Amino acid sequence: MSMSNVSEAVAKPSSKGTEAAVRATSSSPLDWLQRWLPKMVLGPTIISTLIFIYGYVIWTGVLSLTKSRFLPKYDFVGFLQYEKLLDNDRWMVASWNILVFGGLFILVCLALGVLMAILLDQRIRAEGAIRTVFLYPMALSFIVTGTAWKWILNPGLGLEKLMQDWGFDNFQFDWLVNPDMAVYTLVIAAVWQSSGFVMALFLAGLRGVDGSIVKAAQLDGASMPTIYRRIILPHLRPVFFSAFIILSHIAIKSFDLVMALTGGGPGYSTDLPATFMYVTSFSRGQMGLGSASAMMMLAVVLAILIPYLYSELRGKHHG
Amino acid sequence: MANPSRIDPRSALIGRFVLYAVLIAAVLFYLMPLVVMLLTSLKSMDDIRAGNLISWPQEVLFGAWGKAWSSACTGVSCDGIGTYFWNSFQITIPAVLISTFLGALNGYVLTKWKFRGSDLFFGMMLFGCFIPFQVVILPMAQTLGWLGLANTTTGLVFVHIVYGMAFTTLFFRNFYIAVPTELVSAAKIDGAGFFTIFWRIILPLSGPIFVVCIIWQFTQVWNDFLFGVVFSGGDTQPITVALNNLVNSSTGVKEYNVDMASAMIAALPTLVVYVLAGKYFVRGLTAGAVKG
Amino acid sequence: MATLEIQSVKKTFGTVDVLKGIDLSIEAGEFLILVGPSGCGKSTLMNSIAGLEDVTSGDIHIGGTNVTGLAPKDRDIAMVFQSYALYPSMSVRQNIAFALEIRKVPKEERNREVERVAELLQIGHLLDRKPSQLSGGQRQRVAMGRALARHPKIYLFDEPLSNLDAKLRVEMRTEIKKLHQRLKTTIVYVTHDQIEAMTLADRIAVMKDGEVQQFGTPQQIYDDPANMFVAGFMGSPAMNFLRCELQCVDGGYAVGVTTSEGSSYRLPLVHGDNSLQSWIGKEVILGIRPEQITHVIPHKDNLDHVARFSAKVSVAEPTGPDTLVLISLNGQEVDCRVDPREEKPVGSDMEFMVDMSKAVLFNPETEGRLL
């Protein structure tokens, strides 16, 4: 560790060349550029965010106050489009559907996700492989998902026939073409696609729980179910929240799945706000009404998101 | 060792058995659609009518795959989904690369070169991850029309970059925030500037997050339907739109085998990515979820 | 090697004043230590010297040049960071040569420089490794090597030893001291460890709440602290602070103490002048270091500034060479440093001797020095 034997090396003066080169001189235009570079690099993104997100939201808001049909027309009619929307039976069906679909989808995904995560957390053989199977649907598009489930739920040749072949002769399964039940097919397909993701979130959460807490509870004599119910799951509250936010986000944006699985049918029994907005704006040429429905969707997202972000930010200040 | 609540070995064994039974049932549920798709795509239509969803094909046929690729009807034209498959690549590759690269630069600025208002801007940008895109598509359609980009691949790439950037920026920002700022300070003192530090110090550390971000963006853009159906025209449609047209066009007899083969083709690239890089895929999902 | 002058430097974050007007100056080749508890502004001051943070007002001169507005690269400084901040993707060689490479020093020259530094710090065998393959101590050396690879006017060390384990920290401390003695460079060194400050520094600036509490040589700071904060911060175990009454005895001054058994003693003060007159009969704070309260040392017994008293031992903490004995005076705990052979068992009475020549007095309100 001693360096007494290297004094020679120290004493050696460095060559003039190094000295000169090290004394870098500052040139002011370059310095100016260095100071502004970060802002210049972020600039395009700032501008694009301001225009393409905030500007466009405002623009859509403005359109929702006009009579625009196939083309934007800026003659304002106040909140007429919103009144029309509330009078519109199809919109009301779509709104009801999003409640049913969204509610069931979120609930089932959360329940299945937690259950699968807990089961997988029991030192399972081939856990990796099982996890892979649970998660692969997330890599597929909702269009592919819809196409596959449309075939599986096909009233003539799908599940019905399979069950009949297996001996359940009277098995009937016509949800896809039954206006009262078709919305539940959306739930089935969406749950199949997204629940593995929820499982992954919870599994990550479970793995993050401090093992010594569990050990302490075991020493206190708590049984495993009690430990999960009283200690581990409450620990996963933040995971519940973020899973809820993501799932509700998926639900509200659901468009592709409906288009592929039911096309909004039979009739318009499985319309969701997203498909309503698309059909109204692009197929039926009621841009004003379509904009109003889009703004309604945004309002719902904000109503869910703002309390969440608020609590997140508050939590951060306390943390 | 006197544990009063000790479970006796028999009931532990039964518990284990139930556990595995439930898990196997779940695995079957998740696997079934893929198996059904594959089996159906390899059958003839007569075979499909005669058997059921999971019956083995009487004869394994690849005809449906060929037809799906080159001659199935997608709405007006009947050239299969092959061209749309390539369309999707033409859209996806530039969109993913550009949005990822911009996200990396943005994340670098937002963590290592903060300036007054940069945190506020990041908050505003986060909002962009959450908006339902329905609320921007009408103005965007107008804008693309004015720019002459309506129904073009370029237009679609542009849209994907603009709305993908919020996510890519979020990924890189959350990654770079964990990179010690002292590294940047040290490099500044060593005389390196903005881009030198990025190229020489930051980028070499960014391998994993690039993989995560590219996979995430690839999946998002490849699987997109909304932007595709709104902003693309006949020849520039991505595969998702073509698949939907193929499956839901009401002309002629339904050929389920062709539908399934097409769905498999549309799903293949993202499935391959998932199989090859599942770890990063999951990391992206959960990373996006933590703050997204 | 250059002088450093800091002139009324202020730094404000929003409404918080982090630096409230700092004035310091050191000669070329001096080793300056900025020491203080966390949040005292020492790191902010160092970053301001480096140019990593802008100052709100005031000037910084390095080697006579005003560098206040300059970018870090134009200040001609080198810095060793607490986390070492080695570039993870580069080998040790590349890390050391990076600054030279950026400054477009020719390759042969760079190699020579790397060799010189490697020899100096004995890290030649590590040159082709990545930082992740090094131990904590090796990383620390490489971080120093990176700073030494140039010949900057000033070296800045930001708590460079705080991530090392205790033994290595002492070794590296000695090496840094040797290095400074040999290279005669100007060094500014931030630490929260008062032992590091005492052992390394030519000059110490003790900081608290964004102000320099005292600026002086280590011995000045130790023997002649400006206020109670400095007195309490420097030295381990810390100086005893004892509330007691100032008394007038035979034209001189003394303070009164009472042991837990109720016996009272007068401890004489040596250097008192007239300014203390107004404090007679009032409460003051006596500052006395543990090593000045000892067992009875016979040959010092007759000195004027030495007093004796006996008190009950309440706790004894052997450290090896000495034992720290806790007693109670005026109802307050007092640390004494005694020879282990003279130590009495806990609970029993023991005879102590106080050397009052280095005792100090503080104003209980302002915590400033009275004597």
UniProtKB/TrEMBL annotation, chain B:
GO BP term, pick one: transmembrane transport
Cellular localization per UniProt: Cell membrane
One Pfam family it belongs to: BPD_transp_1
UniProt keyword annotation of Transmembrane helix present: yes
Keyword Repeat: no
A GO cellular component annotation in the UniProt record: plasma membrane
Membrane-spanning segments: 17-39, 89-108, 120-141, 153-176, 197-218, 260-282
Alphabetical UniProt keywords: Membrane, Transmembrane, Transmembrane helix, Transport
Membrane topology: Multi-pass membrane protein
Domain ABC transmembrane type-1 per the UniProt entry, residue ranges: 85-277
Annotated PANTHER family: ABC TRANSPORTER PERMEASE PROTEIN, GLUCOSE IMPORT SYSTEM PERMEASE PROTEIN GLCU
Family: Belongs to the binding-protein-dependent transport system permease family.
Name of the featured protein: Carbohydrate ABC transporter permease
Organism of this sequence: Motiliproteus coralliicola
UniProtKB/TrEMBL annotation, chain C:
ATP-binding listed as a keyword: yes
GO MF entries: ABC-type transporter activity; ATP binding; ATP hydrolysis activity
One GO term (biological process): carbohydrate transport
Record's keyword terms, sorted: ATP-binding, Nucleotide-binding, Transport
Record bears the keyword Transport: yes
InterPro entries with a match to the protein in the record: AAA+_ATPase, ABC_transporter-like_ATP-bd, ABC_transporter-like_CS, ABC_transpr_MalK-like, ABC_transpr_MalK/UgpC-like, Mo/tungstate-bd_C_term_dom, NA-bd_OB-fold, OB_MalK-like
GO cellular component, as recorded: ATP-binding cassette (ABC) transporter complex, substrate-binding subunit-containing
Domain of life: Bacteria
CDD domains: ABC_MalK_N (cd03301)
ABC transporter domain ranges (all copies): 4-234
Classification via PANTHER family: ABC TRANSPORTER ATP-BINDING PROTEIN, MALTODEXTRIN IMPORT ATP-BINDING PROTEIN MSMX
Name of the featured protein: sn-glycerol-3-phosphate ABC transporter ATP-binding protein UgpC
Gene source species: Motiliproteus coralliicola
Organism lineage: Bacteria, Pseudomonadati, Pseudomonadota, Gammaproteobacteria, Oceanospirillales
